[in-house]
Amino acid sequence: MGRSQLLKGTTTLLVLAVLREGELYGYEIAARIRERSAAFIDPGEGWLYPALHRLEAAGALEASWRESGIGPRRRYYRLTRTGSRMLDAEASEWESFARSVRLVAGGPADA
Amino acid sequence: MPELDATGREEFLQRISDGLPFDEAEKLDILHELAAHLADSTARFESEGLPLDEAERTALDRLGPPDQLAAELTRARRTPSRLLAAAGAGTWAAVSGVVYGYIFGGLILVVVSTVTATLVASVVHTFGGSWGSLLDTTAITLLALGVGMYVAGHKVTPVVAARAGYHVRAARRVTTALGGVLIAGYALVGWSGTLTWPDVAILLSLPAWFVVGAWRSTAAAFPSRRWRLQIIGLMLVIVPLGLVLGAGQQPQGSGSGPSPAGVERIGLPIPAAISTAEDVGSGFGKVGGSVWTSVFVGDPAVLAGWRDFRVEAWRGIGWDGVDPAGMPVLDPAADRPFAVGPANVAPPGQTQFETWNAGTSIPPGSVELAGSVTIDRNPSVTLAWVAITGIGPDGRRYIMSGPSFDSTAFNGTAWDWFAAIVEGR
What are the boundaries of each domain within chain B? Predict the structure, then answer.
């Protein structure tokens, strides 16, 4: 399975996770994910904005336009209370899934 | 920040814009966000050593095909709550569109009708002749409503599409079907009033006005100057055409006069004994679609042996060119009344009125022979001769009062109109 396929199931978790630390705009979110994953997750950003807009429509994120220090105005995203709950649920789900995959693959469950 | 190559970036953003079915403000939000991203992304690749054009191409490539990105953004923003908002905004657009179109169309129609009618009246005055009109007040009102429906159809589709997050061509199928059915229902059973066949035709065309408006709708600003000129042009054709076609129409009115030719088909002339007993007079009035008529008989004894009183309505035809005296006549082809109503004798003291004709007292002991008949709801009849008849002691039917004539404008819905035709009225 390619990374882009794996990414599809984790976009919500990735976006919400990096926004837990504070407000970010789209490009920063993508850059933060790339940095955190040591450039392992860097398939392009075509997935990012649909995911952000979907999460905003679901009430998990709030967005506002603000001037940035450099360049054009940015649309900053902030985690809402709904988003925090969604993040916890996604993280728990992901942990369970990853542990199960490792068990099936023959590795230690808590690796 | 580096300056982006306008060609690649602008084309990309334009294709995104074309693929988004939202209103301009919402589109701009999305496009500004993507433009800011492209600027950042290009700067990053340029800082990593790529030339500007290659850096921008890489930034664009990483966002994927613009059509696909636009489609995914559309799906992401398409929520159930938007459908509710679309329904509300669509309703408002439809109502405001109808009001705007109705007022605009009505104003144009009034102006064109007035000018045309003045010209026609001048011609008639100069050269003689007479003129009815196919375009009565109802027709003018309905035509204006048709313009309103067109504007509603034109406005509602882009609004619904933008609010719901669907492209105009997709939303059009829904608005056309839903609006068409609703307006067809209104045209058939919602509108009720005085109707002639041109009115019914215009009424039934209302869904078509809406559908054409919806089908021609675009996201562009509406109404345009060109559209207004088209409507003015259309009315300049319709109104004179209606007046010309109306040349054969008969005027409407009511009254009484010399008995029409062929009155013997209604009944024998009123007997002298009855006639002389009518020392008070007779009355004739119309309420809604019914004609009420009565006659006072001073000596009730003359009615002994009489029976089967009723009010009969016979089909009349227009007066122009038919009767030299200018009066409406009985339809020569009519061999029976097209409508019949009951008539009864009210005993002394139980008559409807105590006075007659501006205060003349009803003589004590008088009886009132009165009844009513419904003369509307008959699309094939525009004029009626109405009389009270009764069968005398000799077994023959006599005219007891009248006949008087009245117009029989159809009152009801388009559905009533067709039901009456099906029933042969």
Answer: 6-77, 80-248, 254-408
Total domains present in chain A: 1
Provide the shortest C-alpha distance from residue A63 to chain B (in Å). Answer: 11
Please give the model's pTM, rounded to 2 decimal places: 0.68
Omega cis (within 30) before B223: yes
Chain centre distance of CA A66:
21
A45 and B41 within 8 Å at the Cβ level: the answer is: yes
* SS3 of residue A27 by DSSP: helix
Q: How many helices (H) and strands (E) does chain B have?
A: 11, 13
For residue B42, the chain A residue with the least C-alpha distance is A27
Question: What CATH number has the domain bearing residue A71?
Answer: 1.10.10.10
Q: State how far Cα B34 lies from the chain centre.
A: 50
Does residue B61 carry a pLDDT above 70? yes
CB contact under 8 A, A57 and B64: no
What residue type is B76 in one-letter code? Answer: A
Q: Which residue has the higher pLDDT, A86 or A72?
A: A86
Residue A111 lies in a domain: no
Confidence of residue B16 (pLDDT cuts 50, 70, 90): very high
pLDDT (0 to 100) of residue B126: 76
- Measured in angstroms, the CA of A96 and the nearest CA of chain B are apart by 27
Question: DSSP states of B47-79 as a string?
Answer: HTT--HHHHHHHHHHHH--HHHHHHHHHHHH--
Range of the structural domain that residue A77 is part of: 3-105
- How is residue B292 written in tokens? 């009420």
Q: Is residue B350 pLDDT above 70, yes or no? A: no
Least confident of A59-68, B210-219, B232-241: B232-241
